[in-house]
Amino acid sequence: MNNRLSSPTARVIYFFAGFFFLLVLVAQHKAWRDPGSVFFDPSRAYDFQYSNVRLRQAYEYLAEAANQPFHRSPTISQEDVALCVGVASIARNGARYLRTTVASLLKGLTQDERDQIQLVIFIAETNASVHPAYQEKWLENLADDVLLYDISQEKLDHFQDLEEHNALVSEKMLFDYMYVMRACYDTGAPYIVLFEDDVLAMDGWFHRTMSGLRRAEEKSPTAGKRGDYLYMRLFYTEEFLGWNSEDLPTHIFWSLALVALVPASLFGLRTSTNLAKKHLTNRTILAVSCIYIPFLITLFFLTGRITTNPLPSGINVMNNYGCCAQGLAYPRHKAEDLLHWYDAEPRIGLRDSLIEQYADANDELRWALTPSVVQHIGRKTSKNGGGMAKKKIPITQRLWHFPFEMNDEEKLRNEHARVVGAAT
């Protein structure tokens, strides 16, 4: 019995059991923010961390903005504007997001950065006075343009009816999105960035976005069929970026290849030295190949794709599984294409789904900035229902970018200062 417990095979079993236990502990520590992981912990993963920091900064900025209207530098002309930032906003019962969205977009910008932005806020209510921000001083002081509906009475009456029946998703929200896109297009800005009104932008979002757009322009000619790109995503949720079914053949191939390669390597190693020959018995190699390696492969997949194979920082192609429309940056000519597409025929449906349908039909390349520079903090949905999702997490809450909460206030401030300093 003692000989069996001290045999080479037994020693390998003990070593592997300890090693595997340590790997499980590491996986638990690393993967609790990964929604595709068996170790995902929703009770902690959706907590505000950096978002709380940014909310505090946003409220401080709003307090200052009440008495300090923005003034563009006198030497800046409309041709100097790099981004038109558009936000369409509706009133929500029990929640006010627009003010912190706008403040987080502006807090921390240098004068030069702010001069490059044309900020367009669209109060998307047929009766603008029902929106709590409409007559507040901060909105007038911070926005370059505040839009109201300028449409026919017939269309206005129709939207009023949609509002009264809470039928906003299928038609009016798409119209509102295109309405603010058109307003941004009319400014002549080379890029149009559309945000939903319930997001928070990180300190430094502007310089990271501009850097991402430059990289997208450089890489698109060789990355897509058309030589350009439809948009760059500034927000995405990892909820849909797990082990997707179309990659299953690839995963199976490499898993089987590993199972075959390991015993071949061990047999080769056994012939190289007497020490290896003593410890690598047939039984040991069989145990490693048929038990240990499958266990490790299983743990790899259970840990989650975002943890084991994360997207590299920078820009990444995201033609599939990119969700949702919280922040999208469009080149001007692509916004024009979308406006023509929208005008061509009546369209009813979720705006993000319809835009993806357009992109798929036209082989459009889509980029995503990694990590995301905005977070979705909305808990009061503007859509019908809202519903509950798996693990009893509301659907609105699942629109979440987990790495955003890992940002460090001081590191972002230093990064921003370094980039600004290098540009001067």
UniProtKB/TrEMBL annotation:
This is Uncharacterized protein. It comes from Vermiconidia calcicola.
